[in-house]
Amino acid sequence: MTVSTANAILDPRGKRDPAHLKLAQRVDLETLRKGPVVFYDNTKLSFCNYMEVFRRIKANFAKQGITNIIDFRETVRGKSTQGLKDYAAKKLASVKPVAAIVAIGDMGTSPATTIVTIALEELGIPSVYITAPPGADLVKGVAYYRAGHLCLCPIDIYQGSTVEEIDEKIDAAMPVIFDSLTLPGTAIMARASLDFALDRDPPSDDGILRQAEKITLSTEARSEPAAGLEEITDLFNELHLGDGLPIVPPTPARLKRMMSYCPFHENEVLAKEIGPSGKDIIVRDVALAAVMAGCKPTAMPILIAAFKAMANARYNFLQSVSTSHPGGNMVLVSGPLAKEIGIYGGPGCLGPGFAANMTIGRAVNLVLVNTCRTVPGISDLACISSQAELSFCFAEDPSLTQWKTINAERYDDQTTTVYVLKAEPPHDIIDFLSLTGGDLLDTIVDSCTTLGSNNAYMPGPLIVVITPDHYWLLEKEGWTKQSIREHIHRYAFNQVPMVRDRGLVPVRPESFANRHPMPVTRTPADVEIVVAGGRGGHSAVILPWALHSEGIVERVLLPGGRVPKSIEDFRVK
Q1: What are the tens digits of pLDDT across the range 470-485?
Q2: pLDDT for position 6
Q3: One domain, residues 158 and 250
Q4: Residue 394 is part of which domain span?
Q5: Could you tell me which residues are beta bridge partners of residue 37?
Q6: Which residue of 190, 328, 485, 526 has the fewest CB atoms within a 10 Å radius of its CB?
Q7: 464, 539 in Cβ contact below 8 A?
Q8: Does residue 284 sit in the same domain as residue 413?
Q9: Which helix (H) or strand (E) holds 73?
Q10: What are phi and psi of 458, to 5 degrees?
Q11: Residue 51, domain member (yes or no)
Q12: In terms of domains, do 247 and 314 share one?
């Protein structure tokens, strides 16, 4: 079956210009000896025995007379793409190095550190980036999309590697390191080539998925309802487009219908240079993902607000999309538009069965896979992942509580807001027996952290979802959202010896340096209280990623910043 332009399948990856980085001219051994050579540690060498990576490279360099070395150590976390380029130019390049060694690309800092390495090459500084599992494959992807080629040196080490094992790996890698800095001309291009098969056949300029034109259907298959759906889904799965579930094929007609409640230009940029692809997320990308996810057109204003929220610098979107953390991008909608378009906050609201919840949450993730090319198992570091990365969307139901909902607390009852948080799936809080609010809060507090949760090491936001029975128990005793926040902030903590030298390298406010015990929130404002769900003794806590990442509240607004009175205000006339 040949697909005409009228009924073509659109490519959800969007247009991508091939990257062709001009590598810096390599140097000879004598130049390396004169130096200086920059060693840049993105702070990931500071745990376990990883610092041995640089110690051993320096020892091998010293044998060759390379001793003029300048060390830099600064995190890439929380920096935008431009911020990373500025760091390379204003800090690393300021000492006029003849070469640079960059490390280590092993986990969530891998993409951002790749951007630093590319920036060094653009500044004329020959560089080699040391990588390790699981980040090595992700680095290849980021380098492929953003540079086309880059000198990488993978070493197979992990948190349990001994000093002796690391020394052996580094000694074996030294020829690669020297070659990466000294090979001339065409030889360095061969060394910098990347074995990364994804998207070798790039999107076409006209936005049509050309591979779909090769789909053929038998006479019997043509007579089936939704003919070709299985074949199109198989093709999308083969191309690593989508999430593994059946999709609604994105066609020009469906895209047009999806835009019928989106009075924003389809090329408007919502987030800049996100994910391995480095592509801007534009309105059209979101609309195509919404089609594939099965969204109604009325979902578009919510999705636009969600991506504007995630683009907030305090969300750390650049690093959140490919982290090893299993959390998803939670979308919590508060205000009158939620009910109008069917986003649900009642019994079972965080599970299956509610189309608006499932499809809106799914569309968010599809943008990350298709546009950002954060492809599970290839260019996404999630060790296990979770259902939160498939769909994670629900609403506050104001009929369940006398407390103000998020939109009313931040703005007013008539304003609809979207709250986004990079977070784990809900953790159950079961309590059928407590007879007082204080006893119930003991159960809730105990659920707000574990040694396996990020917030044991990085205090930050969390959400307590209180179901109606638990709300009534608390409310009748006079507990308010503010008093619950203060209580949880005061009593949710870990003993310092339990969080020392395990879990993660801590990222805490400076004022927490000598705290004991160690709180999991910075202030009561980090605790968000939401009433949702159904009757019974199960509430939940949603724990954060929290790595330089805040929960962000964004209003759902019309172009020009006006507050809509109805979803119909968004209809494109």
Answers
A1: 999 999 999 999 999 9
A2: 57
A3: no
A4: 242-423+555-573
A5: 69, 99
A6: 190
A7: yes
A8: yes
A9: strand 69-73
A10: -135, 95
A11: yes
A12: yes
